[in-house]
Amino acid sequence: MAPVAWWGVTRPHRPTAELPQHLEALFRRFPFDRSLAQDPLSCVLPYARDRQSAEIAGLFAATLAVGNTTAIRRSFAELEALTGGDLRGFVEARSDSRWADALPGFRHRWIRGDQIGFLALRLKRIYERHASLEELFVEGMRDDGFAGGLGRLSDELRGTGAAGDAAPPPGYRALFPQPREPAHSACKRMTLFVRWMVRRERPDLGLWTHVDPGELRIPLDQHTFWIAYHLGLTARRTRGWSAVEEVTAALKAVDGSDPIKFDFVLCHTGISGDCPKERDLTVCGPCVVRPDCLLWKGRRGAG
Ligand code: SF4
Q1: Distance 266 CA to ligand 1 centre (A)
Q2: Which of 161, 174, 249, 290 has a CA that sits 20 to 30 A from residue 299's CA?
Q3: DSSP 221-270
């Protein structure tokens, strides 16, 4: 099939011209309450009244956002139990000699308690110099836009390497990848954290007021990437930073002021099983983006 140009980007698959309306319909009809209860963001919402507490809870929840959502929420609840329900107090109590054994036995997939303890220490050190993580993000944005903001935040969370600073435990620095590093990671967990903090509309918190929601980048997890590819929002087969930029650019053409509003809907369409990721008329029948879906291209009943 010859590639075609769509929204300024060459793609092997072309959705219908009505895709923007289809995405808006998907967004309007989506059962947010059903899916929010499953989402790691539901762990952070109880902390929303205090910005620093919300940042701390959000960063822990986003760092643990690997694997299925039930396991993520279970691990976050375990973290709350181990810290006596006081995550901010846990951060404030860390010191260079009191982080490694703070969470004995805690483990979520490959993420260990000593790494979470070190993250708490890094947060304590950051809050000694900044009122909010937003200050770091905005500093980085001045140099290199959204990628620069992520890079600055990641640098500080990894640790400055300054003389006298505690050295991180094995594997810790890899928890905070950066878009400009050679691996060109999609940085899903950090873009998710920033989405929670910045977007003003439900289900997000809107606590960072100096970052324009129109500047956000999509947290590209496996579900979002699958559906974005099959709707022609990206031609890339690798889920890296270039795909993040491409999908975000396509969504900006739908809503320039709030392109990432579609992230929750696209992601939970996959998580919930609303999208079977295969051609199944009993499930795909009511799907509003079926006319745009690569799996239904040229099929009877696609539109
Ligand atoms: S048509 Fe089916 S496979 Fe395609 S996006 Fe919709 S639910 Fe998923």
Answers
A1: 11
A2: 249
A3: -HHHHHHHHHTTS---SS-BHHHHHHHHHHHHTT-SS-TTHHHHHHHHHH
